[in-house]
Amino acid sequence: MAALAVVFSRLLSMAVAALPVMALVLAVRAALGRAPARYRYGLWLAVGFRLACPVSVERLWSLYNLPGIRAVAETTGTAGSGVVRSLVDTAPSVPAVPPAAMSGTAVVSEAAEPSFWAAALPWCAVLWVLGMLAVLIWGMVSAVRLRRTVREAVSEGGEVWTCGAVPTPFVLGLLRPRIYLPPHLDDTTRTYVLAHERHHIRRRDPWWKLLGWCLLAVYWWNPAVWLCWVLFCRDMEMSCDEAVLDALGSEAKRGYSLSLVAHAAAAPMPAALAFGEHDATRRVKNVLAWKKATPRVAFLAAAAAVLAVMACLGNGMTGSSWVRMETPGPMIQVSWDLKEPIRAWALYADVYAYGTRTESRLLTCGELTQQSEREFSGTLYWDVPFDEAGGFSNTMVGSFRGESWNLTLPQPHYTGVSSMTGQTRQRLRLDETGGTTLVTIYLSDKEGGGTAVPASGDPILTSGGVRLRLATSQQGVEAFAKTDLAASLHALHTPALGDDDAAALLEALETDMLDRYTFTRLSQERALVVEFESGPYDENALDASMLTRGALLMALADDLQEVRWSYPVWATGDGGRTERTTVFMERSQPDAWARNMGYEDLRDLGQTPEGIRDLLAYLGTSEQ
Asked: Is 574 exposed, middle or buried (0-12, 13-18, 19+ CB in 10 A)?
């Protein structure tokens, strides 16, 4: 049912996005008035395309570029990026129960109660499928009945067959369509009918009607689609009527009208193209009022129809948002033009040391007041102050949109600092992740402070530095913290754990929050021993924290097989001396967790930021 709910929510989104197209087609259709009906018939191509195809190309000439309609398109996601987003999340996540039972603590998790719409959507999807099947079966039963009716038909040569059981002439079939006529038609009526039905066959109308019927079956719950279906069939028949009159002349209007009245169908035939169906009364009035269109009227009607269809087929010019920077230097003005439905923004600092990203820190973030807001600007200031040694300190200060921050850099002292920003008024497009680098600050701790750009490669990857990166999200600001932690930890992933790697990992996991510690790497045993200076206030809380950190350490260091956490405890006997307790943690249990999450083992989890993110979620770790 979950898959059906996703499909149905996608159809809801497409149906809402198609409403402006239907409205435009109806308006242009009404404006064409007495213009040839074939141009009204061609307008329905746009409606069919929007209902059948969830994606399209971006065009400057598009209905979805209009401000009000663009807001509808961005809400549904159909005409914005070409990707249809579900209106609701049909599979709300249930918080994973962390494996805290190993520390003797029972954990009970309660899933958030789903909304009424989220709970009702799967049942609506089931109802949708039942209705779609009913409409399709209706069409198939109609086709079977017609086949049975004409099984005694006699061929008159070519595609023309005669059958005494048929009430009105019609075309039946797709690959080899046949025209079935009732017997005893006079020659004049026969001429009218054959001209009408052969025009249907030449235009492949049986196929177009089948496509329209299938769309009607899919969108049976949508009254607007039923209205479009009725008008589509009427325009199809009227355009054939006018084609016959255009070939036979105005003198045929009276005889043709009498033929329509004589063979008016009592009910529509979904599986066939009947000569007298789809409002014969209106068709007779249209025939009697018909006049051959002048070249000017025909040209204007054709131009209006083509322009309307082209405006409906293409998506709006959403593209990628761009960021503009002015006044390059330590203080730059940042502004952007939004093209996507962006709701939140964030400024990150990615810190590099000797080619390795050591940290990805979220500096500041905020939400836009409206999803369709177009104005965004702020002043970005950054500076690396001088220190007493004659170089630059390891603290960078900055501010952006009222938020100030201090960033501690990897090395204690730098000898050179330079930066690279966009040129004045340069537009920087957001990448596929919805972000862009605003400023790259190059740092050097080498003698002379050289940070020259090498012949190939980025200098930040050969020395060090900071990238100030703007990120965006179509969700709220809560989407940024999770990405920040997982990406920062994955940047420290190593296949072979060294002393420097161990120090960086323990610092990133904020092990000092538990207590001051020292560590020893046992290379032969492939173990890491962490010794705390004092005992814990809450042993259960400490055990759970060490459990989480141990799993992350072994996920991020491929060759690490065991983590030992050692801390002193106060012994009541022997004069109150202290003893050390060691908690051993090895890979077997975390490997089982990884398999529960669909991964091969713990090493597999540590290969990507997504794997780290899954492990954090499984452990129930705070993202802050």
From this structure: exposed
- Which has the closest alpha carbon to 320: 346, 334, 341? 341
CA distance 553 to 529: 12
Give the whole-angstrom CA distance, residue 511 versus residue 482: 19
Closest CA to 509 of 460, 580, 586, 563: 563
User: Which range, of 462-476, 548-562, 587-601, averages the lowest pLDDT?
Assistant: 462-476
Question: b/e map of 435-471 (b: 16 or more CB within 10 Å)?
Answer: bbbbbbbbbbbeeeeebeeeeeebbbebbbbbbbbbb
Rounded to an integer, the average pLDDT of 419-437 is: 69
Count, in order, helices (H) and strands (E) of the chain: 17, 20
> Which are the contacts of 80, defined by CB distance < 8 A and separation ≥ 6?
64, 70, 73, 74, 315, 316, 318, 340, 341
State mean pLDDT over 140-169: 88
Task: Please report how the helices 253-262 and 280-288 are oriented relative to each other, as an axis angle in degrees rounded to 10.
Answer: 170
Q: What is the distance, to the nearest Å, from the Cα of residue 148 to the centroid of all Cα atoms in its chain?
A: 48
Average of per-residue pLDDT across 257-281: 82
pLDDT of residue 460: 66
pLDDT at residue 483 is higher than 80: no
Q: DSSP string covering 409-421, please?
A: -SSS-BSEEEEEE
